[in-house]
């Protein structure tokens, strides 16, 4: 956040090296434009100078005013790293993360490809999926967030879906609570992709708000219903579009639920 109260542009990029490690680089302000999306898709070699090294919640990098970002640099060392990527790195299934990304401080988390995540879910025992579930961390491109059905009217007490009995009268069939307005809660359908394939998953509640720039589900729902614009001149489709095509670190829980 800037001193003017305006949101400062921010972008996270994930870097890997031939040591099998990965780290998050956070670009701020104008530095977010130094790595265009079309070039990131090429998995470019990057030279960084004058970046800030932080240790909070794991090792990470932050850009500063004098940070220099150079794509496809020249030199013997650059050629060595590029050869490693072409021959080995691009085929590697996972990297050990030095960044926390919401994990325990200093913990090294193994990054897995989406193909590996799907295979683990398919091979896991039903009893495990029904009980504790299986967890994996993956670096992937958020290709798209579905904007057709993105929220449900949740009960303020038990979070189950409420029914509108009449105008301004909602009732929860689970706990029988009645209220004038439910707590509209995100249930986002995400499409992820990486070099190994694609994966569809769901994100619910406060975690989902992070993808929507912390815009409340009720606000987006009102924009959609009234075909209106927010204070920044964005429609609800614009808010969804702004969240698409970002590379992120995903912690993916895999569960099996049976509905009767």
From TrEMBL:
GO terms for molecular function: DNA binding; zinc ion binding. Gene3D superfamilies: Nucleic acid-binding proteins. Residues 3-68 form the Replication protein A OB domain. The keyword Metal-binding applies. Coiled coil: none annotated. Belongs to the replication factor A protein 1 family. This is Replication factor-a protein 1 (Rpa1) subfamily protein. The lineage of its organism: Eukaryota, Sar, Alveolata, Apicomplexa, Conoidasida.
